[in-house]
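Annex B. Sample input.
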Amino acid sequence: MGAGHGHGHAGARHRWRLGVSFALVAGFFVVELIVGLVSGSLALLSDAGHMAADVVALGAALTATTIASRPDRTGRRTYGSYRVEVFASGFTVLLMLGVSVYVMVEAASRIGDPASVSFGPMLLVGALGLLVNVACLFLLRSGSRESINVKGAYFEVVADAVGSVGVLLGGLLVGLTGASAWDTGVAVSIGVFVAVRAILLGREVLSVLGQHAPRDVDLRALVNDLEALPAIAEIHDVHAWTLTSGMNVATAHLVLRVGADSGEVLQQAQSILRDQHRIEHATLQVEADPTRECHSATW
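Annex B, continued. Sample output.
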């Protein structure tokens, strides 16, 4: 039994970009962690914690694109393993939220007991981190528009870029004022930014896993376009959802008028869904007798 049609997917096209970004971020994480521990900077340590999440998230995204590209040999994954990319994005959300909570808790523990911070290493590592993040942003930007998996990695790097800017700013303020409280303030700002980004991405992940209609699909317009076909008397049981980024799926029951050519109607309907609504994989059930009751699902 075949397991469905083969599909190309957006994540696989950008796998090499994920690989290069992973190598850059992993290398820098080691540097930032060591300098953060030596300098005592919470901003550096919080950014290193987020960088560690980046390493795991990029590694998960890279692994997910590899798994999603493998053909199903079990015969049971009729949609393939494309959803692995969505789960990887969900994992990234959890990592980002975890880092944010850690930073907030650590910042709260320093209230009234500020630690001594060396601002020189903060400036040096912040500048180096910004260069690494900018390089990764250029690598992942195009893929983030096509793949939710790459978007998760891209959001991680965006948050890290902001973190690097924060580390630079914190280092300057600590150096100019001598007050280490600036370091804590910058760390809290990084934590809040990371949390907001995680929530936005999490909503998108839940929308896909909840099988909501894709954002770029107007179901009302879709039904109207199909009902405009002269041979169709009625349409019901319409469902549309996203399998993974760039793969929208739909099902519908088409009730035909008497004497209509079902083969021709199916071809026209598939063309409408593909060309006007970006749904290439649609399963359409034809009901030839408009007077006969369709025993459709009650849910």
